Amino acid sequence: MSGFRVLVFCGSSESCDPKYLDVASRLGRALASSSMSVVYGGGMLGSMGAVANAALAGGVRVVGIQPRFMRELGWSHDGITELVLVEDMRERMRRMLAGSNAVVALPGGSGTLEELLVAITAKRLGELGSPIVLVNQGGFYDPLLEQLEHCVRQRFLAERHAQMWSVVAEPEDVPAAIRSAPAWPENSLTFAAL
Question: Where in the chain are the domains?
Fold first, then answer.
């Protein structure tokens, strides 16, 4: 899958349980083993740094997209293949989604959750057709998945909207989940509103 770009949403916290950094490293290795390059937020700390370092060690391209203010704060990873600097968080998100063939969400904080929900919304509105995979390590995403299921039950999302994402327990399962993701209909905007 040479040239296949996977956008990874993850945290930059160094204070989280080290198991999450291990999961990020394992994802980076799994993507590299499948010749999938990484697009991410450009950071050097936490899960961001772990996924980038593992993917680089596996020999694939790693592209970071980061607002200039983060670079000025010293948050950039200087060892990645390419660092793209943008003006703000909105442009960052737009650029990350535009250049990616799949989206993967690792455990993370408010930024990760925001990015994941923006991707799900973009897919619902027909702006994104790519697979979205949540790495639900240790049940991390169980509360969010329950909330999304609640949205379906309350008819804020249709049942078919629950097919916009898939869930895996281990990072090694991500490449297969990407490959087996059902195609998202090009006419998805026609059923975006209930």
Answer: 4-179
